User: Fold this.
Amino acid sequence: MRFSVVVTTWSDAREHLLQRNLAALAEQTAAPHETIVVVDHNPALQARLAAAWPAVDVIASGPVRGAAAARNAGTARATGDAVAFLDDDACPSPTWLERLAQAYEHDDVAGVGGTLHPGWPDGRPWWFPDEFDWVVGCTYRGLPARRAPVRNLIGANMSFRRDLLLGVGGERDGFGRVGLAPVACEETELCIRVRASRPRLQLLFEPGAEAVHHVTAERTRLRYFVHRCYAEGRGKARLRTLVGADEGLSVERAYVARTLPRGVLHGLRSALSTRDPRPLGRAAMIVAGLASAGAGYLAERAAAWGRA
Assistant:
């Protein structure tokens, strides 16, 4: 399996993180077939990277801004059997690509994603629940502990067979993140289309394909947590409009019905047994995060009804 690794970037402020990630890619136990850096509307950054990394293919994104268009540009440039995507602030472990490749051993695998550990600037905030690590673009409590099929992969660490990506037209331009805008779900929508195009194929989560996702100080604040949860709710409402409730909300229903209640119950029990108020605070944040996401979902649905 030949992997084309596509790394998307856009900001001068993240250049040092990208440099770190490119160095990590150069030290993989399974070398990439090629590494492609897609620069989203920043010609000066593109020129610097091309000069600093002559062995890396540094290209410009298309006319549409955003993560989806940048990944599509990388896919169009790629020549490998599979395309593996990394965010510029997600640093892979030395065996990242090797572990992704192992999960493609069977022909019924359409794509594989891996673990994203949060790289906290000063340690995990005491109030931040593990169940909400998706807020900072990472894997979260409730995902499988071993290799298993999943509905969708996480965009900062995911891969697909290239022919399947091209066959479904890649990601939907304009749907999802542009710069720091928190509205997401573009990779979820892509994964649903990939699976629908070949129903016999599956997407796998491979926990051993690890990367560390850098978390900025701004994203450790309560205000960002609430805002991001609200934006996720809006994104899920838009996704439901595109693909229907059965596909668009199937994972979310299980997450709300099982994972979040377990987290609240665990926090309450821990607070009672240890007399430490911090687990109670994390339980409260699970409720607050769910309420924020629900408010965003309802707001987007109401806006859609108003446009109809």
In short: The two ends are 47 Å apart (CA to CA). The longest strand covers residues 202-214. The chain has a mean pLDDT of 93. The first helix runs from residue 15 to 25.
